[in-house]
Amino acid sequence: MATTTERRSERVDPRMTPSARLVPRKAAAAANKTLTEFLLDSGLHAAHDTLADRRIFVLDERQWDEFTAAPEAPPADNPRLRALLARKPAWER
Fold it and tell me: What is the pLDDT of residue 6?
């Protein structure tokens, strides 16, 4: 994780049971970090991954054309889905 010169001024105090707190404590010790360092690094990494998965699309021109055309295209015929939707629900049998 990159280090910065920005001072830490905010505090986060997660509420957890003693048994739940034991797991990150053991993981922090295994990573040779304090509990705070471990939770902060892990949380920031997870946050960056979550945000990246939602805002970055890498498509070539053909893929982009397919992607933008998909909402306008009629759905492909699916005989199994058609049969499933034609069945009576279990509560009506």
Answer: 79
